[in-house]
Structure formats: C-alpha cells, structure tokens
Design goal:
Helix content is 50%, strand content 12%. The protein is α/β, with parallel strands linked by helices. β10 (410-415), α18 and β11 form a beta-alpha-beta unit. It is globular, with a radius of gyration of 28 Å.
C-alpha cells in the first residue's frame, strides 16, 4: 500500500494519547474513527478533541473553519467491527500492558480488512511479540507518538523482527504527512531510542541519591542548569509520573538484565503511591511549594556520572544496530527537548573520561549498569567520537547549531535548533559568530539570508535554562550580555546586505537578532515581542538601542515596557518589518529578496551601510562617510556598468570592482 492509498485511520483507545493522535490525523486531512470500549470513554476523547481544536482556533493557529472541518472528520465508535471496517491503518493506543494489547490485537485481526496496516503506540513493549499475535506481522510496526501528540514533533517508527520495508516506509510517510518528524528505529529493543536514554538516566539519578552521593536538589541543578536539560531528572520524573518510568524500567530489567535493576528509591515511591505531580507528592511536595531547583548547586562528578550512563546507552543502541548516533541525537532532542543529542554531549565531554568514570564506578559498586559497552570502549581507545574524529577541513562551514547553505551568491544561514524553538544558547552564538566571520570574508557571498529551522519559530529568544547556571552572580550575566551584543553586532556591521526571514515566534533575543538585519520579512502567523520585563530583565543583546532606531523611541518603549506579543501586521505598521507574506511563501519570498540584493552593487552597498551606521552615532560623521564614499564610487567599474546598463535599458551586472 502506498501513502496515497491511505484515506481512513482508526485509533484504538480514546485516552490522552489516543484522542491526541486522532486529532493530529484529522488535522492532516484523514478520516478518523476513534474507538474505545464504552460510550463514556469514546465520548470523553471526542470532547477533548473538540476542546483542543477550539483552543488552537482561539490562539489563531487554526481558523474556525479548519477546526470545524477537522472535527467533522472524527467519528466516535464503540463497536470494534464497525470501527475498523474501512480502516487503511489502525493505530493502537490502549493501556501499556502487554496482555491488554495482545487481547486487542487478537480481536482486531478477526475484524480488520486484509490490507490494513497495524501500528502500535507502545512506548517500550516488544513490537515483535505483539505482531506475532496477528496474521500480518510483516504489516505491523511501532508508531510511538510523544505526549501531547498535537505539540510534540517526534514519532519513533519501530521495526519488528518481521516488519517489511514497505510498511516502514508507509508509516514514516504517514507521520510526515501529519506534520511530524519520524525517526526510524531499525531493531525492536526495549525503550526504543528516547526511553532507552531517559529511563536509565532517571534510574541513575535515583541511585545517586539512594547511595547518598548527592541530594535531589544537586542532581536536578546539575541536569537542568549544567547539562542544560529542560527539567531536572527528578522534576521530569514527577511531571511524567514516577510509576510510568518505573514500569518501563521493570520491563527493561526483565528483558535486558540486571544492568537495568530499578533503584529501590523508585520502588519505594511507587509502593507508597507518591507518584509525582498527579498525586501531589513525589520527589517534590506539590502541596507545599512544589519544585524549587537551585541554579548554583551543580556538581561535576554528578554530571560525569549521568553523561557516562547516557553514553553507554547510546553505544549499546549503536552496537546492536537499533539506530545510529545521528538518529539517536535527533530523536532525543525532538522527544526529550535536549539542547544537544546524548551522543554529541558524550563526544564533547570526552569518551575516554566517561569510560574512566564507568570503570571506577564498576570497581566501587560491582553494579552491572556500569559495565562499559564494547563499542564505547573501542571508540574511546581509538580517539574517535560517536560522530567521528575532528577531521573537518579548516574553514569548513559546518556547525552544530547553525546550518549554512549556499544558493548562488546568497548564503542562507539557518538557526538549527527546532527542538528548542531555535532558542539562542552560548554554543549557538559561537557558531553564528564564526559563520558571520567566514561569510563576511568570502567574496563569493553577496548577501546573507537568516532564518530559523522549522515553522514554529525564527527564534523564541534566549535558551534561559542553559544560561541560568550562573545563579545570582552578576559577572556571568554581564559577560553573556556582552557576548550577545558582540555576536549580533557582527551581523549588523557586515558589509553585505542581510535579510531575516521570520516564521513563527520571534521573541526576546530572537527579535534582538532580527533587529540587526537590513531588511525583515515575516509570515502572517508570526508573533514578535520583547518579553524581558515579564522576567524582571531588560533586553540585553542590543534591543534597547537598536529597536528605537528602527521604530522610534515611543514605539520601542511600548514594545519593551508592555512585554506583549505583536502580530506581524502590527510590527509592519510600526516599521520593524518590511514585508508580511502568506504563511507558505516565506522561503521563496525571502530568498527572492536576498537574491535581488545579491545582484546589487557590492561597493555601494558596503559604503551605504557604513554611512548609515555612522550617522546613527554622529550626523556629521555619517555625512562625511557619505561624501567620501560618493567620491570613491566614481572610480569603480560598477559605476560604469550601471551607467552603461541604464543607457542600454538592461539589468546591470555588478562585480564589486
């Protein structure tokens, strides 16, 4: 079956995951049947879809007509035979119990058409074992959405032992058609990719506290403010539900052995029903203040221990051909919100250091979870990393956090952290600074276009979590402000025309970065603003100076003091945006504008920017630069080309001479 043949999707289970998956499928244009075991369950799921679509429309992420049309495509059903009678694909999202799922598939096999593909939303259970309940194991795979499905971009597509390539291709294509980012898991293994990293990480955090090595607060401070994860390990466990991770860990322990022995601290929490936020108490007491992670309690020994355990899990996945390092990093960034993938983090920490950490822990504790995977030891001994050695050519325009793509004479620079809404970290600033330096010196580059990866954000601002490790110390904060000012200033001072293309959020530091461009173009759905006052801060990367130059002092104060978000049309009226385009036209329109500027006279463009910048600071100085530049331009070949082209009624071909 080809993707074009898929018209009807049945979702089994109308709980949080089930109704979320059904909503995503309906929004993608598929006819959806939502089925559960009784009328109350299926009606609750349907009502949740209606509520969610209404919220999306309320936030202008959908029109009312689009929301109504999506809801009309969802049919709630209780009878299983009726639910799957016309199904091309069935996505099962019933409770995460092997016996329950097996019972469902036995009944499903007896009712579904022969051509129907089965996909299970399990987060950890064996795809192979479930598929063998059916008579179509080759047309059976995992399709693991993340919670909430409407917002989370990742879908793990997992092959069972019998799954054929056609089924994997179909389900990957189906996920993409739903606007998701599929990552292929090549082999059926407990936890797949994301949970195989996150759950052992949670377990190790618990062992650290259980063994009195560090406190809950120290571990969470390390994971959140040093490693840079969106939440502390225990904060995340409480958010998800300690029992959820614990049951996945029990399954891993059963299948993979004692290296995944659950920490007694987790077992104690589950036994006492202190399961986290949903019960009011877990590792934190939500009836008495809740989470309070200190920003300045991080410890290097805790960091190395957690990174070492993650590196060992990555190596095991690679060694067993479950996924390669790139896929693992992509999945964990998309599904776990990591600032970098675990393989990249391990490479940066140094694999030999992490292997040494594991060896020492193995000797001290005799615990199997510290036994170094062969592949990890081999990489450490070879001096290579998961992503290879440092063999890039000098001057290469390859970075971790930005992407540089040449299109003719235009250098297209992409902020490449879509999993974090392209928020600006210290590492991203370093990469951006190096990219601007290289492009400024490259005579083949005539214009720069700057955009953000994905369609959710140009940049949602500073990566606050990764930058908060300094706590209340003002010195790192001052250095951070200066670093941003200097990096963004390079873009402003670049002699070449710079265009920024904005789609989605352009907030805080993202808006300060956009202010450094010569021209700004945005989609209708974009939202712009400087929310720093809501945090008790002020724009620290040049926003207090540059914004008033663009929109005037009064408007700049309004934008900064109110800390509100403004739509694109309003920001165009204020003069911040030069153009507003339809949501699906940004890439073409922005590139067309950049290409047009790239065809302009480079020397005249350079001196025009310099004169204008000097004129901001000192009118007389700006006028002097203008006069001197005017004289210089009379000596250029570009002037002669411009005059001749004008006389011949043709387009000039400037060469910057």
């Amino acid at each position: 079956m080809e993707l074009d043949d898929v018209n009807s999707i049945t979702v089994l289970g109308a709980g949080n995951m089930g109704h979320g998956i059904a909503e995503v499928a309906a929004l993608a244009g598929y006819d959806v049947v939502l089925r559960d075991i009784n009328e109350e369950f299926v009606r609750n799921g349907y009502d949740q879809i209606e509520w969610s679509l209404g919220k999306l429309a309320e936030k202008d992420q959908l029109t009312e007509e689009e929301a109504d049309a999506a809801l009309e495509r969802v049919t709630p059903v209780v009878d299983l035979g009726d639910a799957v009678a016309d199904a091309d694909v069935v996505i099962e999202a019933v409770p995460e119990k092997m016996e329950i799922k097996k019972d469902v598939y036995g009944e499903l096999e007896a009712n579904a058409p022969d051509h129907t593909v089965f996909a299970t939303n399990t987060s950890s259970l064996s795809i192979t074992e479930l598929s063998e309940v059916t008579e179509r194991p080759e047309r059976f795979c995992g399709m693991h959405f993340f919670n909430p499905p409407v917002r989370m971009p990742l879908v793990e597509v997992i092959s069972g032992a019998h799954t054929d390539e056609e089924t994997m291709d179909l389900v990957e294509g189906l996920a993409e058609s739903m606007g998701k980012s599929p990552v292929r898991v090549r082999k059926d293994s407990p936890g797949f990719i994301v949970n195989r990293i996150l759950v052992p990480l949670m377990n190790e955090a618990a062992w650290i506290v259980h063994d009195d090595v560090a406190t809950v607060e120290e571990v969470d401070s390390t994971t959140k403010f040093d490693i840079g994860l969106p939440m502390g390990s225990f904060e995340l466990a409480d958010q998800v539900g300690i029992d959820v991770g614990y049951h996945v860990l029990e399954y891993m322990h059963e299948v993979l052995g004692d290296a995944y022995e659950p920490c007694p601290l987790l077992a104690e929490k589950v036994e006492n029903e202190n399961l986290g936020k949903k019960t009011g108490k877990g590792f934190y007491d939500y009836e008495n203040g809740g989470v309070d992670v200190p920003t300045d309690a991080a410890r290097d020994d805790v960091k190395h221990r957690l990174l070492a355990v993650m590196a060992n899990e990555v190596a095991a996945l690679v060694e067993n051909d479950v996924a390669d390092a790139d896929a693992i990093d992509r999945a964990v960034m998309l599904g776990g919100g990591f600032p970098d993938g675990p393989a990249k983090m391990a490479d940066d920490a140094g694999l030999s250091t992490l292997v040494e950490t594991l060896d020492e822990l193995r000797e001290e504790t005799d615990a199997e979870r510290y036994e170094v995977v062969d592949h990890l030891r081999e990489l450490a001994e070879s001096g290579e990393g998961f992503h290879g050695g440092d063999d890039g050519e000098e001057g290469s325009l390859e970075f971790d956090n930005v992407r540089v793509e040449m299109e003719g004479a235009v250098a297209h620079v992409v902020l490449d952290r879509p999993h974090r809404l392209n928020t600006i970290s210290g590492d991203l600033m370093d990469d951006l600074s190096d990219a601007i330096d290289a492009l400024s010196e490259d005579d083949e580059v005539r214009a720069i276009l700057l955009t953000g990866a994905g369609d959710r954000a140009f940049s949602a601002g500073a990566d606050v979590t990764s930058m908060a490790a300094g706590g209340a110390d003002p010195i790192p904060a001052v250095e951070l402000s200066r670093k941003g000012q200097q990096t963004f200033g390079k873009l402003e001072e670049c002699d070449k025309p710079v265009v920024v293309g904005i789609d989605g959020y352009c907030l805080g530091g993202g808006m300060e970065l956009a202010a450094c461009a010569d021209l700004r173009i945005a989609t209708e759905r974009s939202e712009l603003g400087q929310p720093e006052h809501d945090l008790g801060l002020l724009p620290g990367w040049g926003g207090t100076v540059r914004l008033q130059r663009i929109v005037g002092t009064g408007r700049a104060k309004e934008i900064i003091f109110t800390a509100e978000r403004y739509d694109a049309e309003t920001m165009a009226d204020y003069g911040f945006l030069n153009r507003v385009v339809d949501n699906d036209e940004l890439e073409a329109e922005a590139m067309e504008l950049a290409q047009s500027l790239a065809g302009g006279p480079p020397i005249a463009q350079r001196y025009t920017k310099r004169a204008m910048h000097r004129g901001w600071e000192d009118t007389e100085a700006g006028l002097e630069v203008e006069a001197q530049a005017f004289g210089i331009l009379f000596t250029t070949d570009d002037l002669m080309e411009g005059v001749m082209a004008f006389s011949s009624d043709r387009e000039p071909e400037f060469e910057g001479k």
